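Annex B.
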Amino acid sequence: MDSISNLMAGLGVVLQPANLAVAFLGSVLGTAIGVLPGLGPTATISLLLPISIMLDPTAAVILLAGIYYGSLYGGSTASILLRVPGEAASVVSCFDGYPMAQSGRAGVALGITAFASFIAGIVATFAIALVGPSFASAALVFGPVEKTALVVFGLTLAANIGEGPRIRAWVMVALGLLLSTMGVDLVTGEERYTFSIPYLRDGLHVAVLAMGMFGVSEVLILAERKRDFTSALSARYRLRDLLPDASDWRASGKPMARGTVLGFVLGLLPGGGALIASFASYVMEKRISREPERFGKGAIEGLAGPESANNAAAQASFIPLLCLGIPANAVIGVIMGGLLMQGIVPGPRLIFDHPELFWGVIASMLIGNAMLIILNVPLIRVFVLLLRIPPAMMAPAILIFCVIGAFSINNSMFDVGIVIICGFLAYALRKSGFDLAPLLLAFLLGSLLEQNLRQGLILGFGSPMLFVTSPISLAFLVIAGMTLVLPLLQKLRWRRSGGVAS
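Tripartite tricarboxylate transporter permease: predicted structure tokens.
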């Protein structure tokens, strides 16, 4: 009951006019930057750090937190409507959200996304209040060795997301890992795969790669289509006709529940976060589905589960930060910088020294999620109307969208060129039957793998045995191995029983 009373006290803090105003501002900004690709929550929060110093510490963190989880709401919108991920954790929304939009169910896709995020956010907030501070102590045992094993597990999940033969998915994973090594080696200072081009010294930006792979390649696909997809869209424009019906809720209920639990647990782990949570949920739903072939073609379960998982993970990731001083991902790391700039050191003493900040931030998640659902649901009708734009007009609009987003990252035309090149290469890969999702996910995990693998080897004095002597690391590696082996055993059993493997 202490947690509930503390949460009520936190609501009293966040309902103060100034804090309520910054919670609303954070929700609006988060939604906007999620819809617009290129900027992303990390860059936006970094830009706003100097402004946050002028705010009260509690108001500053409420603002930055609202931008973070608000971007997850907005990020799925561009993924569903345009197949252009607004930010990294929204990549999974492309897989089934975009096919749903193309089949005339854009309103349902947007609606189930908003409701899944809202439900997961509310449940995760209460879970944080009840068990977060004590449960987060488990994160203390996650060092470089354990994080390496977690990322390896993530890579095996990435290979299971793509459609088609597994060998093609693993080729995409390998290519993604290769691209993630581009740039200057932070340990030796040597340039890798930069081809003496100064712009590549910092490596490829994930937003540039994502916009090229998903946005520009989609423009090329649209350009060669003869059929006008707008004819398949619903002619009804009443909001209630566009929202999920009873059958959609029945199909989405269990995936939402599983995604919320999975996302919350992974959000508490350093190195976990919204990205791993979203595609771990997608793989889980695909594995347990009786019709896995529906995934990637508009399965609502493939949207509801990951959207619940990424929002629950985003909010749970504040617990390692506030209770232990451990940033779970890059966005949380920037928010930690904002706290330090305010003269507040996150860690075990924060909940006792600054209870109004801790419980105010937790309570602001309830208010922020309520604001986001109120902001997003009425806009579904507007978003669906955008899909009635003919492909001949939509394709240039997507291209302009990507060019502006790419240029805004570093104010560089070189990034625009990279987007175009990546788009043509992605188009060629798609036409050759390769799925792009494993490549992008491997790219996102590659830098984490390299960094933690090196640190783990240093701790083990060059010996890899440390990765199997740690119980947590060994558990993740065993699960990763099972993820690889079990599909092969199933296929072998199928062949022996007289079936024909696909």
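The CA atoms of residues 225 and 330 lie 39 Å apart. Confidence is low (pLDDT under 50) at residues 227-235. Further annotation is deferred to the next reporting cycle.
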